[in-house]
Write a structure and sequence with these properties.
- The chain has 2 domains: 103 residues, Elongation Factor Tu (Ef-tu), domain 3; 110 residues, Rossmann fold.
- Helix content is 20%, strand content 32%.
- The strands form 3 sheets. Strands 4-3-7-1-2-6-5 form a 7-stranded antiparallel beta sheet. The chain has a 7-stranded mixed beta sheet with strand order 11-10-9-8-12-13-16, with helices on both faces.
- Strand 12, helix 6 and strand 13 form a beta-alpha-beta unit.
- The longest helix has 14 residues.
- The protein is globular and about 50 Å long.
- The structure holds flavin-adenine dinucleotide and FE2/S2 (inorganic) cluster.
Length: 269
């Protein structure tokens, strides 16, 4: 069960090399909560108060990047990119200050059958959501990680240490790894490994245009695909209907029925 908890900040530091570069500034937030209500599933998220008040208007959703049990230190870790008011306030918070958090929330990624080696496709900060899935699957996955430019790529050493199958890094501008979008890379990867198309499963998290392209690609190739949707949220618990997306089964709340959906269900508008 999810619940409100207070959590002390034990780290709030930049994670990318050139963290001041416009549009790329990203941080790692480590929290030591009074209590972890329940172990999270990969793909679940917390609403984090982006200042020390209880102002619900200043809560924002962030994927759980890492979590340790009380026996291991009882920490929650998040990766976040500076976007607007809430994240700018969050980056000003210092070690020792407290925030209010609510979670774990949402459904998380369904686990694959044991005989499958899924392909995980992350765009930019989407790494925060897919990294715990890769860990849960003990690195027995292929991982395609793309971003606009190299300063947006996070946790590369951790990924290199974790992923046991193919790890392909790409950037739109060619500043690191292969040049092109992750969808270009996915296309090339499956062309080179045709056996994966018929057997496999895709998981993806990243910006909406990327998710739409991955979903269309999966539909064309007939590959099952799960995507984690990014919508602005207010309550995070299904009450305000502020985060609905259109699906083939009617409108669904990203915070409650999602954030993970089978890609074929989403109606892209
Ligand atoms: C389930 C879920 C998990 C997420 N996990 C992470 C994470 O691990 N790390 C991370 O950095 N971000 C994550 N996000 C996105 C993050 O919640 C937003 O970037 C954040 O709420 C922006 O808050 P802000 O106050 O800084 O910006 P705002 O001032 O609220 O908004 C600035 C701009 O960003 C747009 N925007 C706001 N929220 C979103 C959103 N959710 N998706 C797309 N555009 C948005 C607004 O329309 C506006 O144009 C996640 C979102 C969801 C729904
Ligand atoms: S954020 Fe309120 S219903 Fe989803």
């Amino acid at each position: 069960m999810s619940k409100y908890i207070r959590a002390k900040i034990t780290e709030n530091t930049p994670v990318n090399k050139d963290h001041t570069l416009l549009g790329c500034e990203s941080y790692r937030l480590v929290l030591s909560p009074d209590d972890i209500p329940q172990r999270s599933l990969p793909g679940q998220f917390y609403m984090i108060g982006t200042d020390s008040s209880y102002d619900p208007l200043l809560k924002r959703p962030f994927s759980i990047f890492r979590e340790t049990s009380s026996a291991e230190g009882g920490e929650l870790q998040f990766l976040y990119r500076i976007k607007g008011k809430g994240t700018k306030l969050l980056k000003e918070m210092r070690k020792g200050e407290t925030v209010n958090v609510l979670g774990p929330l949402g459904n998380g990624y369904p686990m694959p059958d044991k005989n499958l080696t899924p392909v995980l496709i992350a765009g930019g900060i989407g790494i925060a959501s897919l990294f715990p899935l890769a860990e849960k699957l003990s690195g027995n996955i292929h991982f395609l990680y793309g971003a606009r430019t190299k300063n947006e790529l996070l946790m590369l050493n951790e990924l290199k240490g974790l992923v046991k199958k193919e790890l392909i890094i790409s950037t739109d501008d060619g500043s690191e790894g292969e040049k092109g979008t992750v969808v270009d890379v996915l296309n090339r990867f499956l062309t080179l490994n045709p056996q994966l198309s018929t057997l496999n499963l895709l998981y993806s998290c990243g910006p909406s245009p990327m998710l739409e392209a991955v979903s269309k690609f999966a539909a064309e190739k007939g590959i099952k695909c799960y995507i984690s949707m990014e919508e602005s949220m207010a309550c995070g618990v299904g009450a305000c209907l502020g985060c609905t997306v259109k699906t083939k089964k009617g409108y669904k709340r990203v915070c409650k029925e999602g954030p993970v959906f089978p890609s074929e269900e989403i109606v892209w508008t």
